[in-house]
Amino acid sequence: MVERRDEADEHELVSRTGAPTRDGVEAGAVYDIEASDPDGVLLDRAGVDAGAIRQIGELMASLGELRDAEQRLAEASRRYMKLNETDMRALHYLIVCANRGAVATPGGIAQHLGISTASTTKLLDRLERGGHVTRAAHPSDRRALAITITPETQRAAMETVGRQQARRFHSAARLTEGEREVVIRFLRDMTGELGLDGVAWAESDTGSAEPGTTPGPAPRDRSGLALP
């Protein structure tokens, strides 16, 4: 028993140091620049000192951990509400419309979700059957419908995932105004770097699949990198 416990402790220590473990590599390795691009094929790191590279790797790992936490929260909320991701996004949109006194329409929902009119109709049928939304005549447009989230569903969403998501405010509030400006600039800059405008492979409907097969999206690891 003692030997087994020591072995587990050793495994945990090695995992934290970044060295290979019995199960491959530690979770944080997927965000490590040197591990992902050891030969500098993706990034020319000439002129960037080792300390900066390590810190950038830690920053990327922190972003990955945030994405993981958001994914776990989203999955938990879907299990609790017994709804899928698109359903939850639609309900969030309806809550915001209600809070702002705006009339939500099927067209607005379709635009927000980026789905077709037919898919929106199926979504609303499903949510209405589940008692999550109601349809009514639009107050000013006879051609449209007004979609409203039911009080019970809004309350359930607010008291669970909504309350948990709101806790992010505390992290932002603990920063100074100057620190928030740095974070805002960094996140917007990174969003721009990840933009797909003008990226040929992202705009193409075809990939490098074998003849006779249908190309699909490349699998991705937790860092967002496409895997071969």
Largest sheet: 2 strands, antiparallel
**Relative strand content:** under 5%
Low-confidence stretches: 1-17, 209-228
Strand order of the largest sheet: 1-2
Mean pLDDT: 84
State the distance separating the first and last CA atoms: 41 Å
The level 1 CATH classification of the domain at 83-168 is: Mainly Alpha
What's the overall geometry? elongated
CATH architecture type of the domain at 83-168: Orthogonal Bundle
Structural class: mainly alpha
Radius of gyration: 23 Å
CATH superfamily of the domain at 83-168: Winged helix-like DNA-binding domain superfamily/Winged helix DNA-binding domain
Question: How many beta-strand runs?
Answer: 2
Kindly report the CATH topology of the domain at 83-168. Arc Repressor Mutant, subunit A
Helix count from the secondary structure assignment: 10
* Range of helix content: 55-70%
